[in-house]
């Protein structure tokens, strides 16, 4: 993963509504959520949610498929895990730390 891609992904999450929406899609798992259900969970107007979903789609953090008349949004778990792996690749300079921030002496 290149630095420019990492910055694009992190920038797409650097907004409270988008972060909450992404986390809700992660919780939903591979089943995903429709925009209506997601808007209701987050308490966001449909137009606002649509704007934020578009931003995350363009960044490649989420995907969207059609199921009949419904759109289903899903977190891209491969992209998410690739980002996490990039961010933690050199954790604690290669020394075991259990990946728990409070006990990590990095």
UniProtKB/TrEMBL annotation:
<dbReference type="InterPro" id="IPR036390">
    <property type="entry name" value="WH_DNA-bd_sf"/>
</dbReference>
<feature type="domain" description="HTH arsR-type">
    <location>
        <begin position="1"/>
        <end position="95"/>
    </location>
</feature>
<keyword id="KW-0805">Transcription regulation</keyword>
<dbReference type="Pfam" id="PF12840">
    <property type="entry name" value="HTH_20"/>
</dbReference>
<protein>
    <submittedName>
        <fullName>Transcriptional regulator</fullName>
    </submittedName>
</protein>
<dbReference type="GO" id="GO:0003700">
    <property type="term" value="F:DNA-binding transcription factor activity"/>
</dbReference>
<dbReference type="InterPro" id="IPR051011">
    <property type="entry name" value="Metal_resp_trans_reg"/>
</dbReference>
<dbReference type="InterPro" id="IPR001845">
    <property type="entry name" value="HTH_ArsR_DNA-bd_dom"/>
</dbReference>
<dbReference type="InterPro" id="IPR011991">
    <property type="entry name" value="ArsR-like_HTH"/>
</dbReference>
<dbReference type="GO" id="GO:0003677">
    <property type="term" value="F:DNA binding"/>
</dbReference>
<keyword id="KW-0804">Transcription</keyword>
<keyword id="KW-0238">DNA-binding</keyword>
<dbReference type="InterPro" id="IPR036388">
    <property type="entry name" value="WH-like_DNA-bd_sf"/>
</dbReference>
<keyword id="KW-0614">Plasmid</keyword>
């Amino acid at each position: 993963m290149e630095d420019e891609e990492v910055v694009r992904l992190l920038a797409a999450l650097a907004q409270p509504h988008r972060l909450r929406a992404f986390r809700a899609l992660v919780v939903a798992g591979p089943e995903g959520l429709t925009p209506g259900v997601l808007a209701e969970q987050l308490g966001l107007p449909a137009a606002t949610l649509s704007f934020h979903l578009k931003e995350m789609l363009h960044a490649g953090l989420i995907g969207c498929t059609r199921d009949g008349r419904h759109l289903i949004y899903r977190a891209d778990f491969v992209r998410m895990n690739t980002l996490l792996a990039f961010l933690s690749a050199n954790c604690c300079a290669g020394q075991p730390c259990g990946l728990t921030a409070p006990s990590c002496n990095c």
